Amino acid sequence: MAKRTGVLIITGSWPPMRCGVGDYSYNLAVAIAAAGLRVFVYTSNGGTFRAFSRSHDLEVLSLASGWGILSVLRSFWGLKRLLTEKKIDWVNIQYPAIGYGYSLGPQLLIVLLKVFLNVGVITTLHEFTQARSLRKISQIPFLLFSDKLIFTAENEATVIKALAKLSGFGKPSYSVIPVGSNIPVNTDLQVVKRKGFVVFFGLFYPGRQLEFVAEIFKAIAQKKDDVTFGMIGDVHPKYLRYYEEIRGLFEGVLPKEKLEWYIGETPENVAKVLCQANVAILPYPDGASFRRTTLIAALMGGVPVISTKGAVTPAELSEGFNIFFASDRSSFSQKASVILSNPELADAISVNTKKICRQFSWQSIAARYVSFIQGQDAR
User: Fold this and answer.
1) In 3-state terms, what secondary structure has residue 289?
2) Which of 81, 129, 195, 367 matches a 20 to 30 Å C-alpha distance to 158?
3) Cis peptide before 96, with omega less than 30 degrees from 0?
């Protein structure tokens, strides 16, 4: 019987730590284990082992004591021994993640892996184009020492290919594999919609345009008096004070009985509430794109979305077919009113959003990862 490929996922964050990359790593680990690989996870202190089905061959090896230079040096030989004992074929580094902080330990770790171990290294780089200049520079070791690279959007790959060319070292094999929804949305499930239910979904932090969302909600309420509004998401501990300020802002512009808060709910409850919505208001500073897991979750749930359009917005998102675009509170509220007043249009949009989201299922993402690991789907 042939030995199944062994993969170690290294991630700075792991549930219940609040981090999109941590949630991504968790869902990816479960999915590629279900696809037949032997999967192990190496993560930060503070991460916990979530319950997995016994059919999933997955194990959390140990918890890193930290990601600083000295911590990585101290823990590397133990990690080396575990990689040998578990017969790991490939290491997949997920970067960046909140759990790494600003440490350069992950960069040192990839150098150590390539110098001292005969193991393939695949690095998944998230949101490189959104990083500041120093953060971008700090990611050069991943370009130089990775055997393979995975990006989550085409524009990310374009930027890093140019950097690799400038470095003079050429570029490693790469693939573009999209992110998936970090909440368990069942695209085949028929959900009963709540009449006149408009929601926002996302993490509450400065820069997420929540003040703008409050203006949009107020404008919708002025047009339609039979609408209930839902705020769905979570709060990073760093921004608790900001969350209280935002909550006060919303409660100041909307009647209490018209506003519902779903904060820190389980992923299952989040999916349930989100899928009951008639409209999701999801503006993004750089425009809607498939790197936004909140957008993907809403689309997979068949929720008509009104968002902003930007340079990174993919052509597959088509106005009036599977999404609506707006730029100011007036256009947001006007399009929300159209959707709320036209159930047939909302149903058509819902069908089309689910079609475009088949590529974002974790089963599909896992199949792409497995194919890439096995030497296919490369560029």
Assistant:
1) coil
2) 367
3) yes
Question: Model-level pTM greater than 0.90?
Answer: no
55-102: per-residue pLDDT in tens? 456 677 666 678 999 999 988 988 898 899 889 999 999 999 988 988
Residue 185 lies in a domain: no
Query: How many other C-beta atoms are found inside a 10 Å radius of the C-beta of residue 109?
Result: 25
Three-state SS at 231: strand
User: Which domain covers residue 283, as residue numbers?
Assistant: 197-359
Q: d(Cα 189, Cα 180) in Å, to the nearest integer?
A: 18
List the CATH number of the domain containing 332: 3.40.50.2000
Is 280 part of a structural domain of the chain? yes
Q: Tell me the C-alpha to C-alpha distance, in Å, between residue 29 and each of 52, 207, 243, 264.
A: 10, 30, 31, 23
- The answer to whether 306 and 196 have CB atoms below 8 angstroms apart is no
- The model's pLDDT over 126-163, given as tens digits with 9 standing for 90+, comes to 987 777 778 778 888 998 899 999 999 887 777 666 66
Residue 314 CA to residue 64 CA, distance in Å, equals 38
Distances (CA, A) of 95 to 54, 114, 170: 28, 17, 21
Query: Could you give the CA distance from residue 126 to residue 149 in angstroms, rounded to a whole number?
Result: 11
- Examine the domain organization and report whether 319 and 369 are in the same domain: no
CA angle 228, 234, 235 (to 5 degrees): 120
Number of domains in the chain: 2
Which one, of 340, 286, 341, 295, lies nearest residue 322 by Cα? 295
The answer to whether residues 103 and 239 belong to one domain is no
